Amino acid sequence: MRWCALGCAALPAIILAVHAQRIAAHQPNAVSQPEKPYVVLVSLNGFRFDYPKKFGATHLLALAARGASAPDGMIPAYPSQTAPDLYTIVTGLYPGHHGIVAEDFYDPARRQLYRSRDPKTADDGSWYGGVPLWSLMRQQGVPSAALSWPGSQAKIAGERPSYSVPDGDGRVSDAQRIDRIITWLRLPASRRPHFIAVSLADVERAARSSGPDSRQAAAAARHLDLLLGTLERDLEAMHLPVDLVIVSDQGMASVGGDWIDLDSYAPLGGFITAGASLYAPSEAAANAAYQKLKAADARFMVYRRANVPAQLHFNGNPREGDPVIVARGPYAIRALSASAANSHPAKGESGFDPFLMPEMRGIFCAEGPDIRRGVTLQPFESVNIYPLIAEILGLKTPPSDGNVNILSGILNSSAAR
Fold first, then answer.
1. Taking a C-beta distance cutoff of 8 angstroms, is the pair 128, 156 a contact?
2. Are 7 and 85 in a shared domain?
3. Which has the closest alpha carbon to 300: 338, 272, 333, 340?
4. Which residue, among 210, 253, 251, has the nearest Cα to 349 in the 3D structure?
5. What is the bridge-based pairing of β-strands 112-115 and 104-107?
6. Residue 266 sits in the same domain as residue 406
7. Whose CB has fewer CB within 10 Å in the chain, the N or C terminal residue?
8. Is residue 183's pLDDT more than 60?
9. What is the 3-state secondary structure (H, E, C) of 319-331?
10. Does residue 365 share a domain with residue 322?
11. 7 three-class SS
């Protein structure tokens, strides 16, 4: 670890990261696995597709040039928020299918609220559908690892990652998260994880608090780019067959105006709400709210859940609410004006329709022994990362919404396992 560079003030967090590591029951690599490659999946949360050029992220640009990339971005699942889309990336399922439909939502069947920042719900595997890559690896006899990734502290599909670090409060810095990747890869071959998923949060924080085009966001992006350069050098020095896949959960847009309060257009008494999601006490109440809201404001569209446009894949899960509000631009919408009376919207926000707003697109680039050099892709949906990584690692996958053929062209012929 880079102790001197991080400084003494970081020592408590480093100690926390080291000693709080969760290690699942020991499971050595299956006999056939040590010959296979390693995949390190890193999400740069909130890193918009145009940031590498806009902010001069030279390491990312060089990595993209050496490997495969999508210069015009990767399309996140709707809603384009961290918890839903990061979990989509590791399951290959749209949020309506894996169940994490927003950062916060209500489950009418359970009669409970899920909050992505509350360990009581975020670490409870019963909320999560699908089989995330780390659980799939464990099921097939291979160690895996994850850090700061939604669901990585929960037991899902009967498994947890072999190695993980609790970080619900964000005290483990991005630099420490990068260090943890190298620490895991330095384990003996019999215990070394062949899949590692880590998300980094500093750019998203800066873009939300100061705006996605701010100097603070630019500084955070360049700092993160330097960390990635260090990661690349460390990986190269290890002489392991590592495929490095860099993504982001979504982009970021500048918010226009103050809050739009849905209860100023329709009476929502008796509704349960979470953000802009509405959970009606009855079908009659749902239809009444829909009739009031559908022509209330040109800044958003309102749908009965079954009629949400098919391309959003957000029309079949009761956790999505009903009626469903879809912003027509970068507007901050909430159900209840009293929910945060003295607050103002963040300067940068996500969660919007990625087909309507290109600012929601994240990044994609990949480099390694299994990745062809100099390949550029048109924008594609994030559900396709799951079958790509499974193909590299030779994993048998359950059905998903992704299609292995979408990204198979970036693989060398030897990558088919």
1. yes
2. yes
3. 333
4. 253
5. antiparallel
6. no
7. C
8. yes
9. HHCECEEEECCCC
10. no
11. coil
Give the pLDDT confidence of 120-142 residue by residue, as tens digits: 999 999 999 999 999 999 999 99
Between the alpha carbon of residue 159 and those of residues 147, 151, 163, 396, the distances in Å are 15, 11, 11, 16
In-domain check, residue 351? no
User: What pTM was estimated for this model as a whole?
Assistant: 0.92
HSE-up of residue 279 (Cα within 13 Å, Cβ side): 18
Separation between Cα atoms, residue 76 and residue 235, nearest integer Å: 28
Please give the structure tokens belonging to residue 10.
């970081």
pLDDT category at 2 given cuts 50, 70, 90 is very low
Do residues 173 and 241 both lie within one domain?
Answer: yes
Mean pLDDT across the chain? 91
Q: Which residues contact 413 (CB under 8 A, 6 or more apart)?
A: none
Residue 70 in tokens: 């999508």
Tokens of 303: 């749908």
The amino acid present at 289, given as its one-letter code, is A
Residue 4: which residues within 8 A CB-CB, separation 6 or more? none
Tell me if 247 sits within 8 A of 74, measured CB to CB. yes
Terminus-to-terminus CA distance in the chain, angstroms?
A: 34
What residue numbers bound the domain in which 290 lies? 260-345
237 shares a domain with 184: yes
Dist. CA 70–CA 124, nearest whole Å: 34
User: For residue 292, which amino acid is it?
Assistant: K
User: What CATH number is associated with residue 319?
Assistant: 3.30.1360.180
* Contact present, 305 and 323 (Cβ < 8 Å): yes
